[in-house]
Here is the input.
Amino acid sequence: MITYFMETISKNKVYVTRKIPEPGPSILKKYFQINMNPKADILDRDTLLENVKNVDALICMLGDNVDSNVMDAAGPNLKIISCYSVGHDHVDIYEATKRKIIVTNTPNVLANTTADLTFSLILSAARNIVNADRHVRIGNWESGWSPDLFLGYDVYGSTLGIIGLGEIGTLVARRAKGFDMKVLYYSKNRKYEIESELDITYVPLEELLQRSDFVSIHVSLNRDTLHLIDESKIKLMKKTAFIINTSRGKVINEQDLISALKNKLIAGVGLDVYENEPISKSNPLTQMSQTTLLPHIGSATFMTRSRMAEVAANNVVNFFNGKGILHKVN
Ligand code: DGY
Here is the structure.
């Protein structure tokens, strides 16, 4: 039985668009003919289209634009697209579904790591960590300490508004309790059990924006959440409040955010994600002192990336060995 299974699946070809860590490659090599980009850098389009030819499975990630052209180039054998990420907006899900191609992701394993990063952005934004670090490095501190140096805002005891109480949102709420924060949340569906377990309060989005000192976004990107936060929503916020975004950049209308920051409608932002990534040096967000900016590193720890590689690889193995499709998103 086992021999039959090995023989059957070993004919299948898997392409991995960028180098992923162990144990991903070892798991895949055990069962499939695997071809993996030896570099972690994004492939140019022509190479991607060439390398996906005749594959049965594709492992891809953020920045790879897996659209109908990639699916055409792969041809009719392509049965599964396994995302090395929880977000799957880099795949044309509509097109994949139309072609009966299964799309999977890597939930659960990266939630705590992303919640940690969210909290580091809250703390950095509130306490000017990045600006203060730069101040020391460039020698400005040599002119002396003063009592108004880098005054910031308290995180402990403040109000955190969480938009989207999924896995990551819930873990951010847990961390907030350790800082004695009052936690409000807005989500498509109310989560009564989590409300009572963590003593957090459901409020409509508008009320959340009005009452929060920190607004942290944890929704996935879809038609309903595209530009969920725009000028009209930002105007509801306190002038001393911060927006933190570790979900997807397109949830915020970035032009509206930039003008809100210019006009001091809010105190600042901590961002790990942007409307169009990567952002360039000329993006006005990079010129402002009220912004803490990261290059989309929410899940970037050695341990988590390794767990993500394991899940992404096992999603392909489980699909072909008939053990059931886990983490399916379409
Ligand atoms: C995710 O897993 O969605 C992260 O944002 C990295 O792509």
